[in-house]
Design brief:
The chain has 300 residues and is of the alpha+beta class. Among the domains are: 140-169, no CATH class; 174-298, Beta Barrel (Lipocalin). It is 13% helix and 27% strand. The chain has three helices and twelve strands; from the N terminus they run H-E-E-H-H-E-E-E-E-E-E-E-E-E-E. It has helices at 2-29, 162-169, 174-177; strands at 140-144, 148-152, 180-188, 197-202, 207-215, 220-221, 232-233, 237-243, 246-254, 261-274, 277-282, 292-298. The strands form two sheets. It has an eight-stranded antiparallel β-barrel. The chain has a two-stranded antiparallel ribbon with strand order 1-2. It is rod-shaped. The model is unreliable at 5-17 and 23-27 (pLDDT under 50).
Length: 300
């Protein structure tokens, strides 16, 4: 009798164990579609809020889709009552565009730019259709292609914008640069030109009119100076560039008493480290035979 009772208890225990195991497996894979009166592919409309601890969409190799016709938010706060962010615990792939506000695009009325509130590293190319604004600070900056601009710590381009730096500091073609009106500041020990100034205007053919003052590097004095001793220029000053830094010049001068004219010619050297300053060095024309320097700056 005891053996029979033990046998019955054992059978019942095994049955309960298998029943429990079956229920557990059924709970993890239970399909409720038919229970809700639907079939595969049906949509279920929940008129309320569904609260679950977790949700899994799709399977390995197949995937799945969640459709949102609204906004994802984290409705919890930290200890200071600040909103907690929505957290993505894995890599995020976005097949569409990312933007902030109701409308995408720059310069629109909603004025809500997309903000990255942290450091950002771009592993690929960065293409910008608009402008890069704001201050840029870095120990090492390299912008390179066929032409390179590099700064290393203390080195920098002193300019408000990179475009201005490219315009002012790089690959200056002096013959093309000279077109326009320039103020002249003369530096020399020649007392005819020492501490003097002038104004000259060049046209696109490199012909210059000495509007006023003196041009020490070429030994030229404007007619307006009315110098009682030295010759003055009566024609345009023609520059013939041999290369970017060497120029052959010619002009006509007239004696102070207007009794004779002469053709003046010579060679001068031209340098420019920016579009805002050109240096010309020579020693011909009127004056003593010493080296003279004329510094050009654009007329404001």
């Amino acid at each position: 009798m005891y053996m029979r009772k033990s046998y019955i208890i054992a059978v019942i225990s095994i049955f309960v164990l298998f029943l429990s195991f079956g229920i557990a497996r059924a709970a993890s894979e239970y399909n409720i579609t038919s229970k809700l009166g639907g079939t595969i592919g049906d949509y279920f409309d929940l008129d309320g809020t569904l609260i679950v601890n977790s949700i899994k969409v799709g399977t390995q190799g197949v995937g799945g889709v969640i459709f949102f016709n609204g906004t994802i938010v984290n409705n919890t706060t930290d200890t200071d009552r600040n909103d907690n962010p929505v957290t993505f615990g894995d890599n995020v792939r976005v097949d569409g565009r990312i933007f902030r506000g109701a409308v995408a695009g720059a310069g629109l009325d909603d004025d809500m730019p997309f903000i990255v509130n942290d450091d950002m590293k771009v592993a690929g190319d960065l293409a910008v259709d608009g402008n890069l604004t704001g201050d840029v600070s870095a120990d090492n900056v390299l912008i390179s292609d066929d032409n390179s601009i590099a700064t290393q710590k203390a080195s920098y381009i002193d300019s408000d914008t990179l475009g201005e730096a490219l315009e002012n500091e790089i690959a200056i073609n002096i013959p093309d640069l000279l077109n326009g009106t320039w103020n002249i500041t003369n530096k020399t020990t020649d007392d005819v030109y020492e501490n003097t100034k002038g104004v000259i205007t060049f046209d696109t053919n490199h012909k210059g009119t000495l509007d006023s003052g003196r041009f020490a590097a070429l030994g030229a004095i404007s007619e307006l100076e009315d110098d009682p001793i030295y010759d003055h220029v009566t024609s345009k000053i023609t520059l013939d560039f041999i290369n970017n830094n060497t120029v052959y010049y010619t002009y006509t001068s007239e004696s102070a008493d207007e009794s004779a004219t002469s053709e003046v010619s010579g060679v001068a050297f031209v340098f420019a480290n920016s579009r805002n300053k050109v240096i010309m060095v020579g020693m011909g024309g009127s004056g003593t035979f010493v080296m003279r320097l004329s510094e050009f700056t654009p007329e404001e």
